[in-house]
Write a structure and sequence with these properties.
Number of domains: 2
Radius of gyration: 23 Å
Distance between the termini: 59 Å
Helix content: 40-55%
Shape: elongated
Strand content: under 5%
Number of strands: 3
Order of helices and strands: HHEHHEEHHHHHHHHHHH
Mean pLDDT: 71
Strand order of the largest sheet: 1-3-2
Number of helices: 15
Oligomer: single chain
Length: 345
């Protein structure tokens, strides 16, 4: 490990003790027979540092709230509470919509042994989901690697590009994309490709990527829109692919608290994904439901799902006009059979 540059030459850096932990411990048969970790901040911290989601780039990985809670055998509420403890201490940060998690100080205690190790990070980094937090993590990694000396700095720049030449976290030798705060979007490609080709290339790669082990498809799959008018508009055309994506959107944008009823709502969210319901359709429907409702909506997900069912029933009957939601009679109708090929309602 490199010595802290602030340590005077005539003083030795404090000796730190480290122990190696094999990641596959978490899947070991005997280990799994032991009494499980109870939900707590310390238990979560050990898991974040050593769990199977960790990869070669120190402190950054792809994981969602629901998947980590399930991995630990905790209720979602317990996981969220433990994570909040660590986040309040700034020990960990996360963009849940992008499923990007960052442990800021991990690089200080897991520094690369050689410049070649730094170069090996490039492919892994490119597979992590794009978001603003990833940009922040790259800047932190750069600062820490530069402290290790010129050889390490050159290896980092050769892999990720120089900071002065590329403000984004894109791989070197690739043109900068438009500013993008959408977790589902990513600009990439070589210098001969334009932005549309860049997006198409990445979308194709993500479609075949694994959804687990810290790498894979983004939180939201790409849509068929080749050139959306804006990043915000593009985001609204996204069709979430997982129940956790729907839950995150509802919690963040509609003040719901769907943390303990994942199993109950999962079949509904799966049906919404199959029906290609976009976030815009969902938001517009919720707004209309709240406008026509005569009082508080106790179960927003079920309420909206019944609206989709009624609309689909009208579609399948070749109705000439969409029914007014104020007059809808919600019945047990499977809307999946009535959805059109374009997913519209």
């Amino acid at each position: 490990m490199a010595r802290d540059e602030k340590t005077p030459d005539n003083e030795k850096a404090p000796r730190r003790r480290y122990r190696r932990i094999e990641v596959r411990m978490w899947g070991d048969h005997k280990f799994k027979q032991l009494s499980p970790l109870p939900p707590c901040g310390q238990g979560l911290w050990v898991y974040l540092l050593t769990g199977p989601h960790t990869g070669p780039v120190p402190g950054v990985f792809r994981a969602g709230r629901a998947s980590m809670a399930e991995d630990l055998g905790w209720e979602q509420e317990d996981f969220d509470r433990a994570f909040a403890e660590a986040a309040d201490q700034d020990m960990v940060r996360a963009d849940w919509r992008a499923k990007f998690v960052w442990v800021p100080k991990a690089i200080k205690y897991n520094r690369p042994e050689s410049p070649n190790v730094v170069k090996s990070w490039g492919g892994e980094w490119d597979l992590l989901p794009e978001c603003e937090l990833k940009t922040q993590a790259l800047a932190s990694l750069r600062a820490n690697i530069y402290e290790l000396g010129e050889a390490f700095a050159k290896a980092f720049d050769a892999t990720f590009g120089k900071a002065s030449e590329k403000p984004s976290d894109m791989p070197p030798g690739k043109p900068p994309a438009k500013p993008n705060n959408n977790p589902s979007g990513k600009g990439t490609g070589n210098q001969e490709q334009d932005q549309d080709q860049n997006q198409e290339q990445v979308n194709n790669r993500r479609a075949g990527a694994s959804a687990r082990a810290g790498v894979g498809a983004s939180a939201h799959p790409p849509t068929d829109d080749d050139d959306p008018p804006s990043q915000e508009g593009h985001e609204m055309q996204v069709v979430p692919s997982e129940a956790s994506d729907w839950i995150s959107w509802l919690n963040d944008h509609h003040q719901t608290a769907l943390v303990s009823d994942v199993d109950r709502y999962t079949p509904i969210f799966v049906a919404w994904t199959k029906a290609r319901i976009t976030l815009k359709v969902l938001d517009d429907t919720i707004a209309e439901c709240r406008r026509v409702s005569r009082g508080p909506i106790n179960d927003l997900v079920m309420y909206v799902d019944r609206v989709f069912a009624a609309r689909a029933a009208e579609r399948s009957a070749n109705a000439s006009a969409k029914p007014s939601m104020a007059d809808l009679k919600f019945e047990a109708t499977d809307y999946r059979a009535g959805v059109g090929a374009d997913g519209g309602f």
